[in-house]
Amino acid sequence: MKRKGSRSDFAQERNAELRAAFFSQNNYNTDLNNMERLVATPASRFWVDPYRARDVMSRMETNPDALSGMIPQRRRMYAALFKRYSEIRKRNPGMPKIECVSAAIFDGAPEFFITPRTARAIIYAR
Length: 126
Hints:
This protein is mainly α. The protein is built from 6 helices and no strands. Helix 4 packs across helix 5 (97-105).
């Protein structure tokens, strides 16, 4: 799986999208309740690399416990992504796995899949 401490190539894009969502609210309070609502808003995509997601989806297909060692937000993200990936794979059986994963990733995410505390740190890190 991912190496501890590795950084995302698109963290700046995700952070900009999160800040835009925050500043589009009429409430600029950064208390945890407001941050919980913020991280629960839909994101334009799943913020994961398609090749990394493909590897995780492959592991999930063969091992149902593949997510057991992940933090809860990441586990929920991959579970939601796997559901979309599986639906796309069923509809398009001949489509390469990486294309199915990419289609699922760029279809939009139901939430940001980060903790409220991480969201607050991102907002303050401007």
